[in-house]
Amino acid sequence: MAQQEIITGLDIGSTAIRLVVGQRTAEGQLHILAAVSVPAEGVNRGVITSLDDATSVLSAAKEKAERITGMPLESAWVGISGPHVITSPSRGVVAVGKANGEIEESDIDRALEAARAVATPPNYEILHAIPKTFTIDSQPGIKDPIGMSGVRLEVETTIIQGLSAQLKNVMRCVYRAGFRVSGVILSVLAAGESHVTERQRELGVAVVNLGGATTSVAVFEEGDLLAAEVLPLGSEHITADIAIGLRTSLDIADQVKLNYGTAVANGVNKREEIDLAEFGGDEGEVVSRRYVAEIVEARLEEILDKVDGILKKVDRSGMLPAGVVFVGGGAKMPELIELAKRRLRLPITLGEPKASFMSAIDTVSDVAFATALGLVLWGEATTRDQGSRWGSMLPNVGAGKLVKGVRSWFSSLLP
């Protein structure tokens, strides 16, 4: 069993560290071998707050997965998230290299490098330069310019950047846990890789990853990435609201949320009550379930309104034919789909894995594992055939191109 056939996806979340291990079989199929989750420590809003704690938890996840698979895990594709991630448009222009004007992949590489050479904010690093469309001479709107003829090649890209210090802390933590880093991917793009089809990307779709401390949003149309943003709000904020509203501890509030929370208060009987003694509260401490639902609904409405604000920035509010796909642990809140339909005025679905893979592990289909699974699929597509990555979104531009620029700075962290 060759080590290079093993692909690991590592999702470093604020509430849980999730790790998925896949292997390409001799027949070329992807087989998911393990999907593990351990409670997170030393991570807040996608940012490492304690290197030792986070390293310890990552090591525990690695050991757990190694026991299941029976083999050492040496490298991983890592998901990056957090409010420090920003996006901006950029344009790269180059002269076509060949004398006869035929455009080759090297010309696309140079155009992308030119687009990456933008003035980045202080202390930021470029994670991805994702091409949207090409222009040959004065002919715009070209998706795949390879083999065409021209003198001047332009590319419009979406540049995704992250704060250098935060990215390096994540890299250092992953390395200390015993992994080499195969690549660094924006988490919501990885989640879209596993839970959104090419047809949905063409029609227009948003992926919303509702996590513990953050909510990540990516918007696609005609195969292009229109927007990617990370909001500093997540399901942990719902827990905090319940704790304040019920004047109880965060642990009890979390249990109340998990066992009795619902996103729509109208359907809850006003007389229905929750006995907090069930979760370790004081005897006789009883609260209204309708009141809890109102707290949950208010916070989710705020999150959904901010998601709609991202759609408004790209003029797609209420105008995405394929609607919104929800993933992440917070997406499992009962009645979230109904509330989102009302608030966003779009078709809403709970994410399901779209890619073809084999697995006897039910948990890999859990929306909480969307990012980790997507990282494995991204890594598998990159190592198998770089040209096939992202379908029409990145014509003839593999994921290897996207991570190439990141490797140059995180390789300096390795001894």
Automatic annotation (TrEMBL):
Q: What is its main location?
A: membrane
Any one biological process term the GO annotation gives: FtsZ-dependent cytokinesis
Under InterPro entries, the record lists: ATPase_NBD (IPR043129), Cell_div_FtsA (IPR020823), FtsA/MreB (IPR050696), SHS2_FtsA (IPR003494)
What GO CC annotations are associated with the protein?
cell division site; cytoplasmic side of plasma membrane
Q: Which Pfam families match?
A: FtsA (PF14450), SHS2_FTSA (PF02491)
Q: Keywords, A to Z?
A: Cell cycle, Cell division, Cell membrane, Membrane
Signal peptide span: none
Subcellular location per UniProt equals: Cell membrane
Segments forming domain SHS2: 7-195
Alphabetized SMART domains for the sequence? FtsA
Write down the membrane topology: Peripheral membrane protein
Q: Which HAMAP family match?
A: FtsA
Q: What does this protein do?
A: Cell division protein that is involved in the assembly of the Z ring. May serve as a membrane anchor for the Z ring.
Member of which family? Belongs to the FtsA/MreB family.
Q: How does it assemble?
A: Self-interacts. Interacts with FtsZ.
This protein is called what?
Cell division protein FtsA
